[in-house]
Specification:
four-stranded antiparallel beta sheet; globular; alpha+beta; 9 strands; ExoRNase_PH_dom1; five-stranded mixed beta sheet; Ribosomal Protein S5, domain 2
């Protein structure tokens, strides 16, 4: 039952994520790319391989992966100014999350003295942009690695974990998966759960919004998020079945 005075879910139940579609190879200039739509949130992710090591990785046995995140001016209801060298704390926080999540998925030894850039751009935002960016970035990495394998530039599949993410929150007393913007605004607590398709946790962000929650509620939120990530990754695997490793 939907709690009183809380947003409706437009036909999906509490534990159902929004309709997901993902397509790879959408940018002809990038060696790896993906376009992901989750509900009304829409992300394009592209991969760039730079033949220069990150400064802190010089002389190391592996390469580096870094992520950048940006939102188009009309991705939201009101226009936002373009981020031209602006110090935006939220953007930097999301970029660090994306980098940590995606580095956990790839063996970077084949990219020694190189840097992988994953650019995630939000075309339309309706909640969950950071988790959708992780999903889009992971799909773009698969597109990139698939091309390397098919062209003989790599002999072994470098993605060691299929990594996904989902938001989960408490709306009243109800746990809901994949919050849209209207739900996120009224959640008592919400988490962004980053995990593998085998149920291993990589990172959890979030907490209570309207006062403390108890350990049982937090644990249930986390368990629900991990299970939802596995479902999302299964859905992506079916859509991207042509990609080796999924």
């Amino acid at each position: 039952m939907t709690p009183t005075n809380t947003p409706l879910r437009q036909g999906r139940d509490a534990l159902q994520y929004r309709p997901l579609t993902v397509k790879r190879g959408v940018n002809p200039h990038a060696p790896g790319s993906a376009h992901l739509i989750m509900g009304r949130t829409e992300i394009v992710a592209t991969i760039t391989l730079d033949d220069k090591p990150a400064p802190h990785m010089r002389g190391k046995k592996e390469g580096w992966l870094t992520a950048e995140y940006a939102m188009l001016p009309r991705a939201t209801t009101d226009r936002q100014a373009r981020e031209r060298n602006l110090q935006n704390g939220r953007r930097h926080e999301i970029q660090r999350l994306l980098g940590r999540a995606l580095r956990a998925s790839v063996d970077l030894k084949p990219f020694r003295n190189q840097t992988l850039y994953v650019d995630c751009d939000v075309l339309v935002a309706d909640g969950g942009t950071r988790v959708a960016s992780i999903l889009a970035g992971h799909a773009a990495l698969h597109d990139f690695c698939d091309a390397l394998i098919n062209t003989g530039k790599l002999s072994e599949w470098p993605i060691v974990h299929n990594v996904g993410a989902i938001s989960v929150g408490l709306i009243g007393q109800e746990i809901r998966v994949d919050l849209d913007y209207a739900e996120d605004k009224v959640a008592r607590a919400d988490l962004n759960v980053v995990a593998t398709d085998t149920g291993k946790i990589i990172e959890v962000q979030g907490g209570a919004e309207e006062g403390p929650i108890d350990l049982t509620e937090y644990t249930t939120l986390l368990q629900t998020g991990v299970v939802a990530v596995q479902s999302v990754m299964g859905d992506m695997a079916r859509q991207l079945a042509v990609i080796q490793g999924l």
